[in-house]
Amino acid sequence: MPITPLETDLLLVIDVQYDFCPGGGLAVTDGDAVVPEINRIARDFAHVVITQDWHPAGHSSFASSHDGAAPFSQVTMPYGAQTLWPDHCVQGTRGAELHDELELPQAEMVIRKGYRTEIDSYSAFFENDQKTPTGLAGYLRERGFQRVFCVGLATDFCVRFSAVDARKQGFEATVIESACRAIDLEGSLAAAKSEMTGLGVELMPSW
Q1: Would the pTM count as exceeding 0.90?
Q2: Sign of the C-alpha dihedral, residues 116, 29, 199, 7?
Q3: Within 10 A of 155 (CB to CB), how many other CB atoms are there?
Q4: Cα first-last separation, the chain
Q5: For the chain, N or C: smaller number of CB within 10 Å?
Q6: Distance from CA of residue 56 to its chain's centroid?
Q7: pLDDT score of 160
Q8: Are 165 and 196 in contact (CB under 8 A)?
Q9: Looking at the DSSP assignment, which residues form a beta bridge with residue 55?
Q10: DSSP assignment of 162-183, as one string?
Q11: Are 8 and 84 in contact (CB under 8 A)?
Q12: What value does the CA radius of gyration of the chain take, rounded to a whole number of Å?
């Protein structure tokens, strides 16, 4: 039985953009299948926030910005290890747009992240240095939200980091797995699930 969301519950829709869907620059297998599921779940929520990956051209997390580097290889940035990605979600491109079939008229805010050239951003709450905030935590606190339900792309990166940071910021966090899809890069999905459950994130198979 699905639960009935409270006024203190919020649905966080993470990076459902064309570059993460089939045919996109960083396509997640079956990524577009989350759209109807998110639409169905969202109908139960009065409060929705959306995140949008929003990189400038030549972003430091792109493999193309590093001579001879292959996509999905690792480098060390000032803030730690960084996976190098294919170019994706470049500001103003079709790939950066939110999926047209999302039906989220009640969405109250869109958080754009990853727009600083020198630092990547997976989490809805912080850049990858874990110091630079997006402002979402303050927004949730001021609005009185207590519980965050995470859906979107990809389970093992932006959903994972967002759910973990929600817990670290003192919110209850649930990931609705049927409304997420993973990249699963060298075991990253299993690692994500282990970290999330270890920090008290609830993994809900479906809504």
Answers
A1: yes
A2: positive
A3: 28
A4: 8
A5: N
A6: 18
A7: 98
A8: no
A9: 90
A10: HHHHHHHTT-EEEEEEEEEE--
A11: no
A12: 16
**Which residues in the chain show pLDDT less than 70?**
1-2
Please provide residue 166's backbone torsions phi and psi, each rounded to the nearest 5 degrees: -60, -45
**Position of tokens 């409060």?**
47
**Domains along the chain with CATH numbers:** 9-57+88-204 (3.40.50.850)
- State how far the Cα of 68 lies from the Cα of 105, in Å rounded to an integer: 44
* Entry field: residues in the chain: 207
The secondary structure of 7-43, three-state, reads CCEEEEEECCEHHHCCCCCCCCCCHHHHHHHHHHHHC
Short-list 126, 102, 115, CA closest to 50: 102
Per the listing, tokens 């959306």 go with 50
Cβ-proximal residues to 56 (8 Å cutoff; 6+ apart), any chain: 90, 91, 115, 117
Catalytic residue ranges: 15, 113, 158
Structural tokens at position 203 = 């993994």
Beta strands in the chain (DSSP E): 9-14, 48-53, 74-77, 80-83, 107-113, 147-153, 172-181, 202-204
Q: Which residue is listed with tokens 């459950």?
A: 197
CA-based nearest residue to 90, from 40, 25, 2, 178: 25
Q: By three-state DSSP, how is residue 107 classified?
A: strand
